[in-house]
Amino acid sequence: MSGPFLVAPSEGGRFVRRLSSVTATRESISLGPTVVAPPKHLMAPSAASEVAAAMEVARHEIESAATPGTPITPDESAVSSDYAYAFDIDGVLIRGGRPIPEAVEAMKMLNGDNEYGIKVPYIFVTNGGGKTEAERCLQLSQQLEIEVSPGQFICGHTPMREMADLYKTVLVVGGEGEKCRHVAEGYGFKDVVTPGDIIKDNQDTTPFRKLTDSEYAASRARVFSDIEIEAIFVFADSRDWASDTQIILDLLMSKNGRLGTRSETFDEGPPVFFSHNDVVWSASHDLTRIGMGALRVSLESMYQAITGKELKTTAFGKPQMGTFQFATRLLQQWRKDTHGIDAPPSTVYFVGDTPESDIRGTNEYNKTADNQWYSILVETGVFQEGTTPRFQPKATVNTVLDAVKHGMEREYRKALKASMQATGVITDE
């Protein structure tokens, strides 16, 4: 166990550990329901503790195969159950590894520092990959100096967890070092291969890339002529497009995922899954940078140029519906645990910076959702003021703080109108 921790009861008497954001590790966070807190809040929980702990418990419940027990009578909560927020991270809360200044104030407002005297629940939905939800949690806690839990995070590759039982041997691409292998193994994938493993077995696979000493040591020795790779998962942005693309193409054109073979029909290779489809994203550079979606487009074009056939790949993350469905399940479980209402919050305000994924996905999901998903576009990331987004949000604001204010003011007006109608001050026309 790394660093001091406390055990504190969450809603309904369940226990959630509290770990310091300074000393916690991915391994210690994964040992059970956990809230990560800055050292100054470790002994005395902050205003963010209640939401973080309750979301963590809800996440463990929806991911557990255990049979539900006796329904719990929720304690009285100061957190609103009527609406919630879902935030993208890069370009909304963080840019280039540093907090966007208004993000800190936005979190304070959601955690009760507002004129309405309430707290509002929130989760984080990011297409960023290559790290476990626990690592994302630890990183954001340090950046924003707030209490958060892994249960509040939904990454682009989170839905891939549900595919672990479908394939035995898989290739995982992207990210730094061995991180994506660790994520995949944490999701339950049984036999995870990386491009480094393949290059270690046959260094001629990638003529222009040689493994460094540390990469060679970390890569696992395998004989791939005897192995069938059943699926390819791009968990995070590739650090070496040329090498990764070469290896993926070799598998796509192989016989049943066996390296060193060539299919005569080019339709015997494994399926390819991407954790998201963002062509560009907001980093520390003044201009947007190309992302995983660009690799997907490039791969499909190269495959068609070589084989003459169209390559069909699958993407998760935003704007895919599975991500929003998972978020709805999480919020519904949280609301059931904390307020005894077995339904998601009436309105979810999704705050994002990318029209093609954040706004498009929110708007599309809203068409079929049982509750309202309300899209808010900020101008601190991919989208820039003065341009016209291809997918129109319900509202466009400058920063995430403006987005929080917009939603809270809208909900106040709705509640005020409903109260006036109920007391006969105004009537429906």
Automatic annotation (TrEMBL):
Protein's UniProt name: HAD-superfamily hydrolase
Pfam families: Hydrolase_6 (PF13344), Hydrolase_like (PF13242)
A GO term from the CC aspect: mitochondrion
GO biological process, one term: glycerophospholipid biosynthetic process
InterPro entries tied to this protein: CDP-alcohol_PTase-I, HAD-like_sf, HAD-SF_hydro_IIA, HAD-SF_hydro_IIA_CECR5, HAD_sf
Molecular function via GO: hydrolase activity
Keywords: Hydrolase
Xref: SUPFAM superfamilies: HAD-like
Protein origin, superkingdom: Eukaryota
